[in-house]
């Protein structure tokens, strides 16, 4: 079984290399499309094979590590010196992530064949997408922090390349650069975290670090620092406060990219990393608290912005930030498997929603403003139905996928040792807003009156696009059944991965009885209310929205302008850094001070030379006078001595 | 000893070709170019024998070749290489033909003299890395200054004379002090019981532990200043942007690719083993300068408007990593420093080539004159993208290997015992992304200029020749990023030995730096 693991990773790499080198000469879109999605499909099939093999053995024998070669080391052979392998770890968590990445990834690749049709950079798109899958698989399958980091940076690179895919537009370049640079701020934390891990445990291998950590006591300061630093990385990659600002702008990329990278997979990398390090976080209650607070605050904060956005993709982007917040909330309260469960269901329904949005944008000839849509359900029946399923799923209506995973998180938030009712309340509040903004989106886009020019003739997307939509819709319906309360297949499956952390947290199986069902009813009721409110306002009483805007103009503008966070960052960080580098470091220190000194000393020497050269008159008589005068001086001096 | 001839051949082979060029008529442009290029390619091929012949399992100096020169002063032509010199010599012989081919049509005047200068420069560079006699080292070190001075001063840009003189004065100032220190060191050898004047590096390694600490400090300063100017260490870096901006492309490639490494090479080869106590004392100070250079260089690079200046300042930042690695005095740090020298040579060499290629088309280097180039030059865009990310330090490409090892080394160093250096150096990770990607965006992305002209010229994508120059560099960029063992294993014995020596000196029970096995063999 172990021999397959590197192959899972290799196929997308091969796809990237073939497309990257020969793609520009390939004339047939069909060939490129089959190559691009085929490699990902093959990886998915292999991952499925490995998964079934794992099912057939005992839970404690499912973990495997495959070493390929020594990557980075001092190669001095000293026992304490650094060494890291290219090595893959197959376990319950990584195979689950692999299935999500390759499965959803495959569907999005197929969808892209239709979506990117006739684009000048068709081959380039698939090359980048394959590279992304390769990097993402390294991220989830790595058996050590450094290889995870390779994947981590690799997905960041692909994100950069794909956001800036249509590089001729000005804002795509800005968005791409912003995404990479903001992520790098997070990576800075991640790197320092790795340095600290290595100097503490003498290794970057998960198994060595985690087994070393499990011997430490609760609240160890070094572990606290490690977990906080790693979390800085997660905040960047998974777009949490205060580093979320890149994700809304990242929507400048093609919509399949938003679905794959900026919703279903890459942005969940931070959640995965925290889950992978669950034992470290379990040892530092303070870090857990930080994770939970950042998560829940982001969940609510992003949802409020989502309420008023008019760009179909921006609404979904803020929704993603908010949902990632829920996943971090789960991590922070020790509900690791609930967080991963939500990661999975979110991958299904958010990919679905983005691809649906893509179908709408496609049909509307690149229009993204939902105020200029409406009534599209007649033109795009399949897109509408699947989008609606996605919206119900994210809103948390049973028995759709989002209900089970979100409810699991909310219940654990309320009931676990690390949780609290305040977190729960905020979570429910966020859920209400989620339901509202999603159905505002559905209503304004698909229902009500048509608000676009009838010359547009919107038409349903081709089969390559609708079939993935239907499959994802199916998954958004049934995907939650693996995590039905008290019969949680996914929790049992992940148990061997998280049990060391759960043991430290001493969180046993905890049945809330009637309370659990009561809270469940409350959250479903609130979600339903949110849906109803949105439909009521935007179908029947549209003037309410307008009058609210007028009555609270400041609040509205604050939300519409995303709390002016970008502007504040520009004024406080970016501008001063650029200005002081230019005005002080370069123009004053370099040019004036240092060069001034160098050129000054040259000038001083020059000046001395200028004076001295006046002696060189070229008049022989003057030289003779000096010569004789010198002789007289020497003789006199000798005589007087 | 027989194998030593291969090394001597490598050093002087380019000289043979300069003689050939000398006798060619200067109108025979094509012939001169071909002879120069084939000379540098043959030198590269010969240097491959060194690579495959060097046995890292034994370590130490190999391919030794010694001929007595000034017998009474124990000065000899004495060359040999260890893993570090090997890698740097290969970098030199690899970059020189690429620099020539990459600027095939860029030089418009006095091509004959130019070709001779480039090949002479190569002799000097290889000689510096191979010398095991300080006097010989000094000769090569100075000899190399002259062709570089002419390359900048004759074939450079509008402000070339100022830049050439600044370059010459800066470096000469440092090397004069080094000469004094070399003579002093040789004299000191004659004062030890039974000793005599010598500049033989092995003999000096033997007597180095006898050097009193205050004398070491002076020597460290004299050698160190010379090397620090070359690196360049902040605040001695201001000659570099001027020299780069004015130098022709090939000059910039060799200057950034190889010449800067002579400084860091010197620190590892001479300062650490010869003046170990002084090195340990200077350690925090050197690390401080290194870290300032990393951040300062990156910040100033960010606000440059000239592409070449931007790359020049980025060199200050990247070479700061090398310095930090050296003065962390750990295996990780030194290995990182050595591989970072190679990485910087490849990435920055390639960046200068890329800037040169577009400059050849447009005759402007101002970032503001560009925009939307990716659409017109997609192949160029791909190469610039790869090299930019190599420079940014993306894992999987070469830059990351060096930077990460350096940070790791300085973080865990017990001799340094201060983790903040690594943390501040880590900021370079953020800034490098800012300045590289910002430049990339402003040059390559956005709409094509409305008239489609850049600097008044139409753009055409890279030619086959230009692609042939860049492909080998990209291959190494990926190779080092994915499988650095090929290179790191060569320098491992030296690094292990240096760290052992430093730690023993710190413990107060110095072991002498042997240069390993051959040193003992040679003394018999």
Task: Give your account of this protein's structure.
The complex is a heterodimer of chains A (641) and B (524). Chain A is mostly helical and 641 residues long. Chain A has two domains: 2-560, no CATH class; 565-640. Chain A has helices at residues 5-22, 29-55, 92-115, 122-141, 145-163, 170-201, 206-213, 221-237, 246-249, 255-264, 269-276, 278-282, 285-306, 312-332, 336-363, 381-395, 401-415, 421-446, 463-478, 489-505, 514-540, 542-551, 553-560, 565-613, 620-640, and strands at residues 64-73, 83-90. Chain A is globular. A two-stranded antiparallel ribbon of chain A has the order 1-2. Chain A contains 25 helices and two strands. With 524 residues, chain B is mainly alpha-helical. Chain B has one domain (4-523). Helix content of chain B is 73%, strand content 3%. Chain B is built from 20 helices and two strands. Chain B has helices at residues 4-22, 29-53, 83-102, 111-130, 134-155, 160-191, 201-207, 213-230, 239-246, 249-274, 276-302, 307-326, 331-362, 373-376, 378-392, 398-412, 420-444, 464-482, 485-507, 517-523, and strands spanning 62-70, 75-81. In chain B, strands 1-2 form a two-stranded antiparallel ribbon. In chain B, helix 6 crosses helix 9 (239-246) and helix 15 (378-392) packs antiparallel against helix 17 (420-444). Chain B is globular. The model of chain B is unreliable at 515-524 (pLDDT under 50).
TL;DR of this structure?
The complex is a heterodimer of chains A (641) and B (524). Chain A has 641 residues and is mainly α.
Residue runs with pLDDT of under 50 for 5 or more positions of chain A? none
The overall pLDDT of chain B, averaged over residues, is 88
* Greatest interface (CB-CB under 8 A), with counts per chain: A-B, 55 and 59 residues
Spans of chain B of at least 5 consecutive residues whose pLDDT stays below 50 are: 515-524
Assign the structural class of chain B, choosing from mainly alpha, mainly beta, alpha/beta, alpha+beta, or little secondary structure. Answer: mainly alpha
């Amino acid at each position: 079984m172990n021999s397959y693991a590197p192959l899972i990773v290799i196929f997308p790499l091969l796809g990237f290399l073939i497309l990257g080198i020969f793609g520009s000469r390939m004339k047939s879109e069909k060939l490129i499309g089959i190559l691009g999605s085929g490699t990902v499909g093959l990886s998915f099939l292999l991952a499925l094979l490995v998964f079934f093999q794992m099912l057939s053995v005992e839970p404690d024998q499912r973990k495997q590590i495959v070493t390929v070669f020594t990557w980075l080391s001092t190669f001095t052979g000293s026992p304490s010196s650094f060494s890291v392998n290219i090595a893959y770890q197959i376990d319950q968590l990584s195979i689950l992530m692999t299935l999500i990445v390759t499965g959803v990834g495959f569907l999005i690749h197929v969808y892209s064949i239709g979506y990117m049709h006739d684009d000048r950079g068709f081959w380039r798109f698939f090359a980048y997408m394959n590279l992304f899958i390769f990097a993402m698989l390294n991220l989830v399958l790595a058996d050590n922090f450094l290889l995870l980091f390779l994947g981590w940076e690799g997905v960041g690179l692909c994100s950069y390349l794909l956001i800036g895919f249509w590089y001729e537009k000005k804002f795509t370049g800005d968005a791409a650069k912003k995404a990479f640079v903001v992520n790098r701020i997070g990576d800075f934390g991640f790197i320092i975290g790795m340095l600290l891990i290595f100097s503490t445990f003498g290794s970057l291998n998960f198994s060595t670090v985690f087994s070393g950590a499990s011997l430490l006591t609760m609240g160890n300061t070094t572990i606290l620092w490690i977990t906080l630093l790693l979390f800085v990385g997660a905040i960047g990659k998974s777009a949490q406060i205060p580093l979320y600002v890149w994700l809304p702008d990242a929507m400048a990329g093609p919509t399949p990219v938003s679905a794959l990278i900026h919703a279903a997979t890459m942005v969940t990398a931070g959640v995965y990393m925290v889950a992978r390090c669950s034992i470290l976080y379990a040892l530092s209650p303070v870090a857990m608290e930080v994770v939970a607070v950042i998560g829940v605050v982001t969940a609510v904060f992003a949802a409020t912005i989502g309420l008023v956005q008019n760009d179909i993709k921006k609404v979904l982007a803020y929704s993603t930030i908010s949902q990632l917040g829920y996943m971090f909330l789960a991590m922070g309260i020790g509900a690791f498997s609930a967080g991963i469960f939500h990661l999975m269901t979110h991958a299904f329904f958010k990919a679905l929603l983005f691809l649906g949005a893509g179908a709408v944008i496609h049909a509307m000839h690149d229009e993204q403003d939902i105020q200029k849509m409406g009534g599209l359900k007649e033109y795009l029946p399949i897109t509408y139905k699947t989008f609606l399923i996605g919206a119900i799923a994210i809103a948390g209506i049973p028995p759709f996928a989002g209900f089970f995973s979100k409810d699991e998180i909310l219940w654990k938030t309320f009931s676990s040792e690390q949780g609290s009712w305040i977190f729960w309340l905020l979570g429910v509040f966020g859920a209400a807003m989620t339901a509202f903004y999603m159905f505002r989106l559905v209503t304004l886009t698909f229902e009500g009156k048509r608000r676009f020019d009838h010359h547009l003739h919107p038409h349903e997307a081709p089969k390559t696009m609708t079939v993935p939509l239907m499959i994802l819709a199916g998954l958004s319906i049934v995907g939650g059944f693996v995590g039905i309360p008290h019969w949680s297949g996914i929790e049992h499956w992940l148990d061997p991965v998280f049990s060391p952390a759960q043991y430290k947290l001493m969180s046993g199986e905890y049945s809330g009885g009637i309370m659990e069902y009561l809270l469940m009813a409350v959250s479903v009721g609130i979600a339903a209310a949110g849906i109803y409110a949105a439909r009521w306002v935007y179908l029947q009483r549209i003037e309410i929205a307008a009058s609210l805007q007028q009555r609270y103009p400041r609040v509205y503008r604050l939300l519409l302008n995303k709390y002016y966070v970008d502007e504040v960052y520009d004024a406080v960080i970016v501008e001063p850094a650029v200005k002081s580098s230019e005005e002080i470091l370069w123009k004053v220190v370099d040019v004036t001070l240092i060069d001034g000194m160098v050129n000054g000393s040259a000038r001083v020497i020059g000046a001395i030379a200028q004076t001295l050269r006046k002696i060189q008159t070229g008049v022989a008589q003057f030289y003779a006078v000096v010569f004789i005068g010198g002789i007289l001086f020497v003789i006199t001096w000798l005589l007087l001595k | 000893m027989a194998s030593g001839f291969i090394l001597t051949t490598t050093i002087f082979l380019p000289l043979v070709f300069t003689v050939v060029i000398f006798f060619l008529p200067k109108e025979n442009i094509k012939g001169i170019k071909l002879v120069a290029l084939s000379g540098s390619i043959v030198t590269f091929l010969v240097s491959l024998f060194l690579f495959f012949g060097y046995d890292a399992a034994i370590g130490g100096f190999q391919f030794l070749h010694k001929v007595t020169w000034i017998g009474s002063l124990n000065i000899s032509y004495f060359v040999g290489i260890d893993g570090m010199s090997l890698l740097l010599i290969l970098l030199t012989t690899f970059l020189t033909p690429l620099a020539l081919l990459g600027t095939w049509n860029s030089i418009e005047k006095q091509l004959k003299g130019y070709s001779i200068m480039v090949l002479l420069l190569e002799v000097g560079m290889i000689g510096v890395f191979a010398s095991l006699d300080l006097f010989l080292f000094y000769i090569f070190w100075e000899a190399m200054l002259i062709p570089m001075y002419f390359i900048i001063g004759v074939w450079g840009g509008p402000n070339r004379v100022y830049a050439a003189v600044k370059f010459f004065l800066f470096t000469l100032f440092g090397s004069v002090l080094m000469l004094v220190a070399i003579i002093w060191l040789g004299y000191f050898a004659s004062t030890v019981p039974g000793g005599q004047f010598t500049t033989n590096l092995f003999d000096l390694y033997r007597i180095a532990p006898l050097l009193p600490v205050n004398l070491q400090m002076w020597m460290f300063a004299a050698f160190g200043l010379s090397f620090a100017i070359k690196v360049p260490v902040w605040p001695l870096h201001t000659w570099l942007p001027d020299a780069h901006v004015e130098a022709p492309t090939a000059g910039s490639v060799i200057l950034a690719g190889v010449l800067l490494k002579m400084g860091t090479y010197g620190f590892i080869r001479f300062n650490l083993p010869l003046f170990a106590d002084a090195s340990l004392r200077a350690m925090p100070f050197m690390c401080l300068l290194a870290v300032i250079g990393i951040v300062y260089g990156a910040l100033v690079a960010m606000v440059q408007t000239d592409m070449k200046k931007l790359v020049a300042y980025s060199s200050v930042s990247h070479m700061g990593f090398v310095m930090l690695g050296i003065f962390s005095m750990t295996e990780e740090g030194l290995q990182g420093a050595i591989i970072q020298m190679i990485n910087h040579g490849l990435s920055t060499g390639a960046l200068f080539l890329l800037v040169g290629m577009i400059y050849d088309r447009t005759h402007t280097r101002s970032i503001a004159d560009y925009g939307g180039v990716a659409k017109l030059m997609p192949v160029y865009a791909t190469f610039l993208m790869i090299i930019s990310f190599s420079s940014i330090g993306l894992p999987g490409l070469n830059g990351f290997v060096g930077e990460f090892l350096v940070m790791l080394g300085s973080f865990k160093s017990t001799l340094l015992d201060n983790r903040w250096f690594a943390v501040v150096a880590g900021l370079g990770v953020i800034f490098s992304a800012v300045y590289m990607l910002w430049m990339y965006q402003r040059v390559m992305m956005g709409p094509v200029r409305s008239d489609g002209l850049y600097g008044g010229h139409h753009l055409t994508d890279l030619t086959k020749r230009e692609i042939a120059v860049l492909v080998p560099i990209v291959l190494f960029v990926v190779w080092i990023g994915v499988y650095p063992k090929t290179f790191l294993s060569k320098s491992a014995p030296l690094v292990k030995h240096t760290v052992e020596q430093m730690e023993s000196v710190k413990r107060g029970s110095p072991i002498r730096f042997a240069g390993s096995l051959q040193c003992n063999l040679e003394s018999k």
